[in-house]
UniProtKB/TrEMBL annotation, chains A, B:
Residues 3-172 form the AAA domain. It comes from Candidatus Lambdaproteobacteria bacterium RIFOXYD2_FULL_56_26. Pfam families: AAA_31. InterPro entries: AAA_dom, DNA_Partitioning_ATPase, P-loop_NTPase. This is AAA domain-containing protein.
Length: 257, 257
């Protein structure tokens, strides 16, 4: 029984990739079989695992070569229990072709069906905003995680994302789209504004906010510079323990195992 | 003689909006006439100036109602010397229609021609990534500013953006696309990794990096929470003086006045 989890947000730079990378690693350490898919042309997932060279088959073929079996697109690194579909090099023209294919919101969901029996978890790192790739990620997911930086512009963007989410749900009455929760990220306990925004969000959307908060953590910044998950870089760091707690919270809350 | 300046990046959350908002305000304080255009459906510019209610005409009509004169889309606030085209509410379907219109990279550039004599500066805040709206912003601009957060993933994304930029240039041989410079933003002098990345960037791309560096500055975070430019919120803050220095550097470097 595979659970598909997408990381989506309207706002940029709120920790979608960091959360996908580190939650995937947490699951892998917990002996779950994970497939991590990078839908973003900027290829952050590949860099987050130290894969310096571009891959020849990946997200581009996922959309533009639908007859190519998923198996051909899947890569490994030295990480146990983790497989990847990396975002490979694409020209602006190819990006446009992909967005046309992805105007079919259900495309990715159907494409991933052949992977359902192989993996315990499929994690999807989406680009920011509500373009066709992000909507495909939302539609393919059993659970959507919405990272949120506790700053005013990110909160305003979240409101707009939730409106779009409802609009997408209405468009797909036969699919039950689910928000697993809002994940407060990059939380800086020394900033009054972060505490204030966290309070407002908890007050307005309490039940939907994960108990786990990801703190602003220097080891996380360092780990992405070194091309490693923070969990393999420094297991004892606050960043690592937060993402492991998030895994446990998810598993409990949604009875994933 | 109008100068059009776009704020673009592959990476999300690197300070495009903050830079567009604050540079626009700096120019306005300098008595220049400014039009600030928000191309991003998340509407951050409107929130950055405390405009709480959605506007009825704006970016949506800019693309979907090309016969509507620009004048009808332009709004003011109590800011002297500043006019705005705000991003107004758009459904996912309207977003898709806009992206189809924007597949013509030169659309925005032609649309803005009627504004050329009215303003000294037209500033365009683009969404992250290299989708049709961002490419329209690049193509419409005399000068493109690339904000860069001094962290590894943002640097990797910058590389990809520069490749895409060159690809766009080749596609438009009769237009001279120009990168004004890379603007280091959110620079945290207490983080070793930020200093290290800044050194690498200056070493690799020295001539293209603005001398002005925008520091990580609590007043900037606070100002966007209060719906004001940092310059009107706290003129003495490091954030304000940095964006004013950037204005001076731009004016000198490109002999804008
Ligand atoms: N908790 C944290 N503490 C410190 N740095 C963090 C934390 N989370 C993320 N970062 C850093 O912040 C930057 C943005 O994070 P990330 O790239 O994961 O966001 P994103 O939402 O995927 O961005 P994009 O919209 O560009 O895809 C990265 O450089 C990352 O290393
Ligand atoms: N120099 C700074 N110091 C402190 N906070 C900053 C600074 N610059 C920007 N910020 C804050 O960081 C967040 C991201 O900045 P901003 O929204 O301008 O980035 P962006 O590139 O426009 O993001 P997006 O990709 O979502 O459009 C905002 O909450 C903003 O207030
Ligand atoms: Mg990302
Ligand atoms: Mg922005």
């Amino acid at each position: 029984m595979t659970t598909v989890i997408s990381f989506v947000s309207q706002k940029g730079g709120v920790g979608k990739t960091t959360s996908a990378v580190n939650l995937a690693t947490a699951f892998a350490f917990g002996e779950y079989k994970v497939l991590l898919i990078d839908l973003d042309p900027q290829s952050s997932v590949r860099f987050s695992f130290g894969v310096k060279n571009p891959v020849d088959l990946g997200t581009k073929e996922l959309f533009l070569k639908p007859d190519l079996p998923l198996q051909r697109l899947i890569r490994r690194t030295d990480q146990e229990n983790m497989h990847f579909i990396f975002s490979n090099q694409m020209t602006l023209h190819e990006e446009q072709l992909i967005s046309h294919v992805a105007e079919d919101d259900g495309f990715l969901r159907r494409r991933l069906e052949e992977a359902y029996l192989t993996y315990d978890f499929i994690l999807i790192d989406a680009p920011a905003a509500t373009g066709p790739l992000s909507l495909n990620a939302v539609c393919a997911a059993d659970l959507n995680i919405l990272p949120l930086q506790c700053e005013s512009l990110a909160v305003k963007s979240l409101k707009r994302f939730l409106v779009s989410f409802n609009e997408l749900q209405k468009k797909l009455p036969h699919r039950e789209l689910k928000i697993a929760g809002i994940l407060l990220t990059m939380f800086d306990k020394d900033l009054e504004i972060h505490k204030k925004v966290a309070q407002q969000i908890n007050k307005a959307l309490g039940g939907s906010v994960f108990k786990t908060v990801i703190p602003k953590n220097a080891q996380i910044t360092e780990s992405s510079a070194l091309g490693r998950s923070v969990i393999t870089y420094d297991l004892k760091s606050e960043g690592s323990s937060a993402y492991i707690r998030l895994m446990d919270e998810l598993i409990d809350k949604f009875r994933l195992r």
